[in-house]
Each structure stands twice: as structure tokens, then as C-alpha cells.
Hints:
Mean pLDDT of chain A: 84
Order of helices and strands of chain B: HHHHHHHHH
Shape of chain B: globular
Number of helices of chain A: 6
Strand content of chain A: 15-25%
Distance between the termini of chain A: 34 Å
Oligomer: heterodimer
Largest sheet of chain B: none
CATH topology of the largest domain in chain B: Rna Polymerase Sigma Factor, Chain: A
Distance between the termini of chain B: 25 Å
Radius of gyration of chain A: 30 Å
Low-confidence stretches of chain B: none
Structural class of chain A: alpha+beta
CATH topology of one domain in chain A: Immunoglobulin-like
Largest sheet of chain A: 8 strands, antiparallel
Largest interface: A-B, 56 and 73 residues
Helix content of chain B: over 70%
Order of helices and strands of chain A: HHHHHHEEEEEEEE
Strand content of chain B: under 5%
Radius of gyration of chain B: 18 Å
Number of domains of chain B: 2
Shape of chain A: elongated
Amino acid sequence: MSNCDQFRDQIEAYALGALDPEERAGLEAHLATGCVACAKAVNEARWLVSQLAYSAPDAKPSDMLKGRLMQTVRAEGDGKPRQAPRGHVVPMWMSAAVAALLIFSVYSAWNTRQLENEIRLANDRSAALLAERRKAEEQLSAAKREAMTTMIMMDPASHKIDLWGKDAHPETLEAKWHSKLGVCVSGDKVAMPAADHVLQVWFIPKKEGAKPMPSAMIRPDASGKFVVLILNPPEPMDDTKSIAITEEPAGGSAWPTSPIMWSGNVT
Amino acid sequence: MSLDAALLSRLLRRDVSAFEQLYERHSRLVYRLVLRIVQQAATSEEVVQDIFLQLWRNAKHYDSTRGPFAPWLLTLARNRALDHLRLKSERQRRLEEQADTLPAVFAAPDYEHELDEKRRAERVRALMASLAPQQKKAIELAYFEGLSHSEIAATLKEPLGTVKSWIRNGLLRLKEGLQQQANT
Lengths: 267, 184
């Protein structure tokens, strides 16, 4: 499997803006490597997505809108440079008027520069405020995820699922599944997967022959610990036979490509 | 050079009549899209006014050699309308507009060719109508309401994997349909 194959299924959703933050970050990191094939696919997907605008119901803006816009544009358009007429004798009163106009123009240009500076400063302040807001939103989001993880781990209504490896290992893994809040998978003393690889969680449906549903990707910390929150499991608890973990190439896979390392039955 | 590219080149020289022609050519579709997202006529007109004023003031950011104008304008319009939907107060909206960037220009695929707005709308609507109702709904929630996979799964009360498949397969079907129509 080439590196690009991991992202092919996500490109249309990326152009649509529908990828969740983790997937979007993964794909953007890949695009940042300069992958020409994926950049071309994103380009084409953006065009495709833009065509959805044509499915919007028919409607027409009011004539007043055009009137307002043209009034503003004409007022701003008057500032464009015009060529001075040539070959005429200029009377004195006109020279005086031109001189006055020149003085006024110089003043206006100075005034415009002042205004531009003020606008630039206001823009800088706005950008700083926006960055602060985004940072606060990220912190809030992280706090919410942490609170949700704690609730799932502590709530007696959560269903505990021990995840077992096929051989005896020092690591301990478990999942806690709360039917309303989501699933929390945690581990300790877990060996770090190979470089360019991650551990990937799978939901195995009860239905005979049904495809394992791919879910969160994990990289444990240096001590082998990890906790991952899955807010929207791909299958409901009643329809899920087991949870499994495999090692997959970075970015995850749509289908398991290596043997199951740990698994646990849901019921 | 397309008519849009020629008009944009004049727009760079602050040609008011070029702006008026661009408005006449595209305002109706932009308004339809914004109204579908924002759902209020008066607010939609405000958003459309902002979009066209941004075009007038920042036309230099659009490079007509890199792709057609209409898809770029529609992407800008969708972004602005969704921004408006997400931001609650007027002050927040102004801040966002000042700091926001324009979308990248993207090339049309090889199979794309010039079509008038009415015929293009007919073929996109027909293809969307051919999708399963839930699949169409999932794509519309993403495009017109700016929802993510997870948010759509929660809204439709469907598994996340199912929603992802619906959206991807639906868009691929739309692409195949547009390719087939272009070849006939």
C-alpha cells in the first residue's frame, strides 16, 4: 500500500470540509509533503464540491442590492487615475483651482495613508484576537474531551471490556463503553509501534461476514501509556461483537493489514 | 481567454462596468447558494454584498490562469455564508472577515466544459435526485450546513462509517455522472 492510498478515501470529504479534525490534520500533513497526486485529486474534488451550489433552489436577489453595491463601487472607483487633457491654454483661475486641488490631493493622500496605517493596526489586533479565540476554543475542546473521558471511565453504567493479547505480555489494555457517551480505550506498558506505524482500533460487527469498522489511531507515550476517546463508535454496542487493535501504517487503514494484537468481546 | 477572465482583468483596472457585468453574470447563483445556507433573505443579501465588495477590493488575489472563476467564487460564497452561520455577533463576523483569507483557485477537470447556469443546475439536480435520500441528506448537511462526518452521524443517528461511505460514494457518483454527461 503506498502512502497515498491511506488518504484516497478522505479526499472528497476533505474538499467538502466534512473530515473530523484528526483526519483533516493527517491529510493536511500528507499534502504538506508535496504529494502531487493527492494535491491534484484535492483540486479536482474542490471543483466537484463547488458544483453542489447548482443544486440550491432558485432565488433572485432584490434590485436594491445591486443599487447599493453599484453606489459603493462607483464611489470607490472614482479614485482611479485619469489622464490629464493636453494641448489647451490653461486660464489663471483654472491654474489656481488646480493648485488648490493639488494641495487638497496631497492632504487626502496623507490622510489616506494615516487611515491605512490605522486599518493595518486594527487588522493586526483583530488577527491577534482571533488567534486567542482559536486557542481558547482548542483548550475548551481538550477540556471537554478530558471531562468526557473521566465520565466514561468513572460511570458505573460504562461496560468494561478487557482487551487480551494472544500471548502473555506485561501490558494491560481495556475499553470502557458507555452506551450514550462513547468508548474510551486505554493501555499501559504498551510497546511503541514501528516508525511510520500506529495502533488502530477496530469495531467487529456481530453480523456474519460484516466488514470490521476502522476507528481511532493511537501512539502510546514513552512509558507505553495511552487513552483515546471515541465519541461516535461506528457501530452501536448491541451490534458489536468485539473491539480489536492492530498495527497499521501511519494514517490508518480501511481494512486490517496485520494480525490482531489485542481484542475483547463486548458482551 | 474566457469572458470572466477578461472581465476580471478589467476589474483589476477598477473598471466599474466590468464589475457590473460580473455581478449580472454570477449574483443570482451566489444569492441562491447563500440563501440556502443562511435561510434569511435580508441576511443573505448582506452576505452577498460583502462577497461582491470583497471581489471588487481584492480581485488581484484571483489568478485566472490557475482555474475558472465561477467555482472559485462559489467556494468563497460558501465559506462566507458558513462563517456567517457559525458566528453569532456582528462584531465577531467583522473580526473574522478581516482576518480571513480567500480560497485557493483550482483548475476544472479535463472533462469540464462551458455550460450555462440553467443547464448546469439541471444536471446537478438530476444527479443529486438519483442518490438515496439519506445519502443526499448527508451530502447536503455537509455542504450547506458545514457539518463534519461525526456531526452528521449524530444528526442522522447513523453509524459514522455508514455516513462516510454515503458521502464518498455519493460524490463519486456525482463525478461519474458529470463525466458521462460531458462525454455525450
